[in-house]
Amino acid sequence: MDSKITDLTLVTALTANDVLPIVNGGSTKKVKVSQLGIPTQTSQLTNNGADGANPFITASDIPTTGQAGTLIREVKNMTGLTLVKGTVVYISGANGNKPLVSKALATTEATSARTFGLLQSNILNNGLGYCVIIGDLTGVNTSSFADGDQLYLSGTTAGAYTNVKTLAPTHLVYVGKVTRSHPTLGQIEVGVQNGYELEEIHDVAISNPVLGQVLSYDDTSGLWINYPIINDGFVDINNTWSGDYLFTQFETTNNYFNSYQRLAISGNAFRVNNTTSETYAQNAVFKNYNVAGYTETITVTTATGSPPSSTTSHLYTWGQVGNLVTITIQLSWANAGTNVTGFICPLPSALPIPNNPSATIGVVHSYGTGVLSANTSASATVGSAALRVKTVTPQSYEIYIQQTAGSYSRGYATIQYFTTIVTPV
Hints:
Blueprint lengths: L18 E6 L2 E6 L38 E7 L10 E8 L2 E6 L11 E5 L8 E13 L9 E4 L7 E2 L10 E8 L5 E9 L9 E2 L8 E5 L4 E5 L2 E2 L2 E3 L9 E6 L4 E6 L22 E5 L3 E2 L5 E8 L2 E4 L2 E7 L2 E12 L2 E9 L17 E10 L10 E8 L4 E11 L3 E9 L7
Parallel strand pairs: 3-5, 12-14
Antiparallel strand pairs: 1-2, 3-7, 4-5, 4-6, 6-7, 7-11, 8-9, 8-10, 10-11, 13-14, 15-16, 16-17, 17-18, 18-19, 19-23, 20-23, 21-25, 22-24, 23-24, 24-29, 25-28, 26-27, 26-29, 27-28
């Protein structure tokens, strides 16, 4: 009759001479441990080759020479085209439990920020394959690169890489380094590292950026924050401070800066002539215009002669420092006039209106230098130039360049005058 163990009293250790009770019905038999044939050494263990039959390993079964050198992930291609080996891909979605990949491109955040790795082999459309995320990619054409070249995601060709470091607005994504340059046996050590957008840096807090803002450090939060520095067309240098502001305006049409203090400065913070009384900083405009064509209608005065004629080349430029305005005019005709005594040139409408000490037509506001000439050589005779009232209503001015009668084809004048306008015109 067969017997079986129905109960085994708990033991903490067994030796070769220990006895185990075997119960069979109402009878009990005792068996020594040595009779059970329990192996006491790993050399007594054998593996018959069947899975799970002898689930044991020994020290000699543990590999010591090979280690994992590449991390790969199974991915799926549903782009509609075959993705070839070495293509740089990003995760563009999911299908089942597999990530979908598409060709990465460094032109947008969406196609570059989620760059995943380089394909280990060709993947047919709707097929599965493997992507090298970290480690060695072998068997690719790297002949156009040198050993050690750093590779970046291309901003021109989707799925490609380049050894030319990309610059903004192209997104910077490092994808690996060439470890062997070869047309068929090339190797790339893959290691994708996505570059950061400015607002992704941990101590930068940018919210809804707009044109004209600057990044300013906030010592309360310890963050770099974007601030709207333009208020009513003025650039507020100290926009985050309380109290008074220093404003600088940049006028884009004519390219100048206009800086001035908008609010009163406390006497405790700013003293004038060693006093403690409250004062105001003076407005100061700084402008400098490029040379432009002078298109106003010019009146030529003569002493029974003829005005210059044919092709003209009239230019002017002007600038302003505070309330002092300077204008220079250069007039040129192809043919000289006869018995010419002067050129009357309306003040360009772009300039600020002069101070008006008199509202009488013809009254001179200020004098400058003026010359009439027949050529571009220096003239031995110098005339005069006067800024005078042209009309009262509306208020307008003109520059009168005059000289002794002669044959002239050119006129030059420089005038300075004061204006009350210290904000842009």
